[in-house]
Amino acid sequence: MLKKFFLTLFLLIFVFSWFGINGCGKKSPPEPGRFYNKTKGFSIKFPKGWEVYEGQMEEDPVVEAVSPWESDSDMLSEFIAIYVDELPNWMDLDDYYSELSINSENELAHYQEEGSGTSTIDNTYVKWLIFSYTVAEGAMQNISYLLFKDHQAYIITCNSEPDKFYMYKSKFEEVAQSFKFE
Question: Exposure string (b/e) for 43-62, b if CB count within 10 Å is 16 or more?
Answer without folding.
Answer: bbbbbeebeeeebeeeeebb
